[in-house]
Amino acid sequence: ATYKVRLLSEAEGIDVTIDCADDVYILDAAEE
Q: 2Fe-2S ferredoxin-type domain spans which residues?
């Protein structure tokens, strides 16, 4: 399965949606 993960930080001005496979650590996916 693949999940869409939204990273939101109003203070940092970040609003990113990433695709994350269920066998990948979210921190590893966020680095890519």
A: 3-32
